[in-house]
Amino acid sequence: MKSTQLAEKVSMRDVFGETLLQLSVEDEKVYALDGDLANSTKVDTVASNNPKKFLQMGIAEQNMMSVAAGLASTGLQPWATSFAAFLSKRSIDQIQVQIAQPNLDVKIIGAYSGLLTGLTGKTHQALEDLAIFRTLVNMTVLAPADGVEVKKMMEAVHEYKGPVYIRLARDPYPTIFDNDYKFEIGKAVLLKEGTDITIISTGTQTSRSLEAAEQLEADGISVSVLHMPTIKPLDKAAIVKAAEATGVIVTAEEHSIYGGLGSAVAEVLVEEKPVPMLRVGVKDRNSESGPNEEMLEKYEISPRHIVKAVKEALKKKGL
Amino acid sequence: MNLLLNEEKLTDLTKRASEARRLIIETVYHAGAGHIGGPMSAVDVLVNLYFNEMNIDPADPHAAERDRFVLSKGHSAIGLYCVLALRGYLPIEELKTFDSLNSRLQAHPDMNTLPGLDMSTGSLGMGISAAVGMALGAKLQNKDYRTYCMIGDGESQEGQVWEAADVASKYKLDNLVAILDYNKLQQFGWNGENEAREIPVHEPEKRWEAFGWNVISIDGHNPEEISSAFAEARKVTGKPTIIIANTIKGKGVTFMENAYLWHSRIPTDDELTGAVKELEKGFDK
Fold first, then answer.
1. A189-317: CATH topology
2. Average pLDDT in chain A
3. Residue A7 burial (CB count, 10 A)
4. How far, in Å, CA of A198 to CA of A242, rounded?
5. pLDDT at B1
6. Selected catalytic residue, list A18, A61, A211, A253
7. pLDDT, tens digit, for every residue of A232-259?
8. pLDDT digit string (tens) for A204-239?
9. Residue B164 touches partner A, C-beta closer than 8 Å
10. What is the CATH number of domain B7-283?
11. Domain boundaries, given as residue ranges, for chain A
């Protein structure tokens, strides 16, 4: 495991754009649908290099998702892309009625997810998307941690037939995975083994959790980091195993503390293996626009806050 | 207007529409739930689609080259089910399961349950967008099938309808035909007595023209006008067509016509008898 401080940083959206271009070239059924954000989401790679496979739906997310359903019903595989905030809230009825319930092969890409959306503030942040999407029947919900995982995930999602939501981040993140990493839908990835506590993280919070784990090791605390790239279907066995191994859990996500990874893990623990746990996420409050590091600090989801939560959780365990 | 239907076909379509209307009323009576007014206004167009216009085969409801139909005004589902039953997609007897547990005939169309339904609808404004996707899918894959979609006038208050109108026009979907069931009534009244209860859409022709569509206005209960409009739409290139079907909510049963209470009222025994008696006259034509 490389130190996350030293790792090369790669932007998920760049990898997304390149990979979708590749898929659109290789598979005649793959189409990119844009809600006029292509140069932000980086789906503009398809518009520029494979324009026949690029469908501009304009600033009308509801129509875009229903059109995607119609396209999928004719045997195509549309990849509909917009900001996570708009897809998860503006067009969720369309996604439920015409994509999730009929189990159509539509890939939904929520770019600019979470809190760090590039000085755009609360209208453009998505802190509820995991909560919303994981309640939809038939829906697979994914949150990659780095550029390598984005590519591997997209290749797996392309092979999988059915509706999938992928949340992506705007800014570059440290590369965690090697190129021979094998992603599997529904499987957690144990990134670091320890004995005192397990941090279960998803998406962008996985590299911050690894950073927190390095600090904790320096303080003599042995930490496991379990990366959960699939929020639904959740790898329950991995969660139960972690609870049995370390007896206490902290979850970390760039998402509301309500309904996302923390809630999903808590549901499993309560029913299968009750152990103490704490959730690191954005609490029940309005957010705002601001620089990344200051946002992480103010909204209590920085590596420092993960460290703090781990130490508090260990007290619950009696250590 | 050119007459496209011979006497035999005209009689057949008229008779089937009367049969469908009787089935609608009997089914809603039996289920104790459902809509009557909207399905009755839509049924002449639905019968024409399934018995005259569309290239479909009830024995092969998933055929890749079939024409598609989306009932965007999903609450008229019972009207579509009755026509599908008459066309052979399901046994007439099965209509009695409408709205009951485990039925393939859900209150609003569910494409998962009943083969022959090309899209799930019910939440308004969505069906027309899905139809745009189907028509666009045909263009992208060089397929010749056509896509039909019925929307409601009340439904046209949904902004998504106009998002769809915009994109259909942009992609020049001349393989797409929308039908507006323009019955000028919606759930809560719209009897025009004051501003709050004005009719849903004034001059829909102007709106659709402004969005770049080919517009054809017809009497939506006249089989010859319906057939001619479909034929005319086939000749248009470079733009989608909308048929403004001027209809009467509750059409076919005098006491139900233009009465907004029949949007979703359940008939009493006497009302059922009266309605069936009036409709049976249509069978003899």
1. Rossmann fold (3.40.50)
2. 97
3. 16
4. 6
5. 45
6. A61
7. 999 999 999 999 999 999 999 999 999 9
8. 999 999 999 999 999 999 999 999 999 999 999 999
9. yes
10. 3.40.50.970
11. 9-174, 189-317
pLDDT at B272 over 80: yes
* Residues of chain B found within 8 Å of residue A60, distances taken between Cβ atoms: 160, 163, 166-167
Tokens of B269: 């025994």
Q: Does A215 touch chain B (CB under 8 A)?
A: no
Please provide the DSSP assignment of chain A as one string.
---TTTSPEEEHHHHHHHHHHHHHHH-TTEEEEESS-HHHHTTHHHHHH-GGGEEE--S-HHHHHHHHHHHHHTT-EEEEEEEHHHHHHTSHHHHIIIIITTT---EEEEES-BS-SSS--TTT-BSSHHHHHTTSTT-EEE--SSHHHHHHHHHHHHHS-S-EEEE--SSEEE--S-TT----TT--EEEE--SSEEEEE-TTHHHHHHHHHHHHHHTT--EEEEE--EEES--HHHHHHHHHHHS-EEEEEEEESSSSHHHHHHHHHHHH----EEEEEE-SS------HHHHHHHTT-SHHHHHHHHHHHHHHHT-
> Which residues on A lie below 8 Å from B159 (Cβ)?
62
* A126-157 pLDDT per residue, tens: 999 999 999 999 999 999 999 999 999 999 99
Establish if A54 touches chain B: CB-CB under 8 angstroms.
Answer: no
Backbone angles phi, psi at B221, to 5 degrees: -110, 0
Which residues of chain A make contact with B140, given a CB cutoff of 8 A?
Answer: 31, 71, 76
Contact (Cβ atoms closer than 8 angstroms) between residue B76 and residue B28 = no
**CA–CA gap between residue A126 and residue A71 (Å, rounded):** 26
pLDDT of residue A2: 54
Cα–Cα distance measured from residue A3 to residue B39, given in angstroms and rounded to the nearest whole number: 66
Per CATH, which fold does A9-174 belong to?
Answer: Rossmann fold (3.40.50)
Per DSSP bridges, beta strands A107-111 and A223-227 are unpaired
Predicted model pTM = 0.96
Q: Using the predicted structure, report yes or no on whether residue B18 has a pLDDT greater than 60.
A: yes
Same fold, A9-174 and A189-317: yes
| Cβ within 8 Å, pair B120-A98 | yes
Q: Looking at residue A319, what is its pLDDT?
A: 67
| ipTM exceeds 0.90, yes or no | yes
Active site residue A61: yes
Look at B125 and A103 and tell me if their CB atoms are within 8 Å: no
